[in-house]
Amino acid sequence: MSSEDGVPVIDLADIQGPGLERICEQIAKASEEWGFFHIVNHGVDLDLIRRTQKAYIDFFHLPTQEKRKYMMTADFEGWSSPEVYNDPDLMKFGLTTAKTCEFMYHVALSRDPNQQPALSTIPPALRPMVLEFAKEVTAAQERVLAAMSVALGLDASALQNRFGPADVGIRANYYPLKREGKTVGELPAHSDLPAIVFLFADKVPGLEIRKDERWVRVKPVADAFVVNVADCLEVLSNGRFRSAEHRGAGSEAEERISMVSFYMPSKAATIGPMDELLDETHPARFRSANFGQMGLELLSTGLKGKGFVEALRIEG
Ligand SMILES: O=C(O)CCC(=O)C(=O)O
């Protein structure tokens, strides 16, 4: 099944039952052709999603001086907005430019028992929802990763094991209503760095993805997450799955919020093609790199293109 714009829609209702084989095939096809797909019946509680979304909107509606209490710190966690960039007295950290939308980012869950997230950048009113949301989204991401492993002909746990104990970061982007003559921040074209990304933006359009040489405006699908293959997964799959460039914007009809969950490999993980996928007819198309070091370097240079994939690509 696909939505009107052609982006595949995959029903995960039967992912832990006899439908697994069919779901794996659909996920493989979507990851190869689009790098993007919608998932429905994903197992994340819809009421929890809406409560989390409402809590973020309430935060973004607060007066600026309140939001400044959670200003982004050097580890890239916290709130940021174009006005931070226009204020000469404020420190600026990664990913934001004067034209980027207002957003908040925090690591909300770690699979490493020795390295739990600090959580101080998450406003207390949001914390219980965000933590519960992160828990459910992470479990859903790991179900999708297992299906992707099987689709690649690997053990169900192969990708997750290779990524090591993941951190899950949540980024909420806020796009106010677009009004004539007023510029609102957007997110420029980029691909995502980590392994797999889930985006929930509900019914308001604004996400565009690059398919071949054209930009496709993604038509929202009710209650669905949009899943995308990110750079690390393209590299691990030796280019079989593709991470697609995309960009985000607001709407003239309604304010828009997108909640984006990044499943990030452990900083110690080596990101390179899986050995099981290589042979004489399938030589490695990418070099290997340490995720912590390389990821940090790329994050500091900001959002653009498919930086990680291109940095590791072996020419020829
Ligand atoms: O808001 C959107 O639709 C895009 C969000 C996104 O690409 C991101 O946060 O990395």
UniProtKB/TrEMBL annotation:
PROSITE patterns: FE2OG_OXY
Record flagged with keyword Zinc: no
Protein keywords: Iron, Metal-binding, Oxidoreductase
Pfam families: 2OG-FeII_Oxy, DIOX_N
GO molecular function: metal ion binding; oxidoreductase activity
Domain Fe2OG dioxygenase: 164-265
Family: Belongs to the iron/ascorbate-dependent oxidoreductase family.
PANTHER family: OXOGLUTARATE/IRON-DEPENDENT DIOXYGENASE
Protein name: Fe2OG dioxygenase domain-containing protein
Organism: Marchantia polymorpha subsp. ruderalis
